[in-house]
Amino acid sequence: MNEKQRSILLDSSSRFPPPPGVKLSYGTAGFRADASILQSTVFRVGILAALRSLTTQSVIGLMITASHNKVSDNGVKIADPTGGMLTQAWEPLADALANVPDSLHLVQLVDDFVMKENIPLEGVPLAVILLGRDTRPSGKSLLEAAKQGISSIVGAVAVDMGVLTTPQLHWMVRSRNKGMKATEMDYFNQLSSAFRCLIDLIPPESAVNMMDKLIVDGANGVGGEKLQVLEKVLHGLDIQIRNSGKEGVLNEEVGADYVQKVVPRGFAPADAGMRCASLDGDADRLVYFSAIQNSNNRILLVDGDKILSLFALFIKEQLSIFNDNEGERENNSYLATLGVVQTAYANGASTDYLKHLGLQVVFTPTGVKYLHEKAAEYDIGIYFEANGHGTILLSEGLLHWLDGRSSEPSLTSKGSVQQKAALRLLAVSKLINQAVGDALSGLLLVEAILQHMGWSIHKWNELYYDLPSRQLKVKVVDRSAVVTANAGTMVVRPLGLQEAINAETGKLYTGISDFPASKYPRGRCFVRPSGTEDVIRVYAEASTDEAADNLANSIAQLVDQFLGFRSS
To answer: What does 319-341 look like in DSSP terms, one character per residue?
Structure first.
């Protein structure tokens, strides 16, 4: 690092001293805390983003949001060149930068890292970082801190993309690095064009007019605001937006997280039975629901597991079309792999349904970064968490083959069912946000598939019925005492705990979806350490509410016996 760079870093970082006694950790959501203590952290993440851009020689994204957290919180995270999350290899540097005590130590840390990674700091090549923020009042000042951090690295340029959903920024980063147009209007136009294509390709025999409008809870956040813009360029979908952000407080009794239990604010008894959707605060999660009449605000929840199942069913149907015609099989030179990726928190009924369809279902540890990485191993990888975060990934090889199937007269006759299937899958690749989970693009894909199937939300919900499940937390002396394997479903330490869990459920453990024969019909449970506090999380499900309750409580008692305060 030359003296000019050292001087700039020392001067700028001295204006953003870290708050005393605060230690932050970079996780799946980046850094997240009360907005009042984040100025220094966001400034330093600006430095990190600039270094990442120089290292990869690519456009990087920096998003200021706290998603479904309360409005007084905020956060910051980085989008890598693919549009995905910051590589895990750089997370330790993020932690170190955020927590270094003063400017001198900060400059030394950067200098050491730059030398180790051989990062050029002479202004060539140029570093480009796209910035976005959600609608939180604290976002403006934090954005300025990010700009200061970026500009403290010689040759780094911050490009303010304005108020965005988190998925929009990730999409822009991915598109810029692929050499594609990447403005917000380009995003809206691509989504609306792909949606229109899927609607136009609905077979006449299954086409149905969705008689009722779609009511969307915008969580009083950026998603509601952007959906209003998107609606203007859409055709074929009647949307009514509630909690758009013009009135009401972000995430307060609204949003995809809140609606997991009850009807959000802004909905009335007259909405009972209607098809409704809910976004979270930065529009990277989506769930559907329908209020139940005369039920004291209870809902029929159609969560991420059901969205995954709908997508998987539709895509499997399109792929099967290529093999249905005997005369076409000789041209089917691409055997696409289709994989469905879940975590152990996915309801067992959804896993059973997907396996019954003949799909390959694999499990990863909890966390979007693990799901996304695994899904990328397939030609078509679909992943969703129950909370509504997920997407579909399609390989370049498959897209090239589909493009040929859809356009080459020698490969398929114009207007054939095979050509239409190829066009549908190509439209899915443009409609879905392959960088990250996106509530807006996911919502349009759900709506297109429901119209294709001719299904109501109630018909969709009947794909399967969730098993009752329970989640508990057990306070322990040291959460690190628990070590798990097999996607977080089997305890390998402390010795004896997994055997005790197996004995309670009445089975020999052989895999995620095993069911015991007697004590808890269709019972399944696992324990895992929290990532943030000294508690062990217990998950249990069974065929009845009573059995799920009993199983969860029994396993919680076992955890307490092995690891709780009484055991110490």
So the answer is: HHHHHH-GGGGGG------EEEE
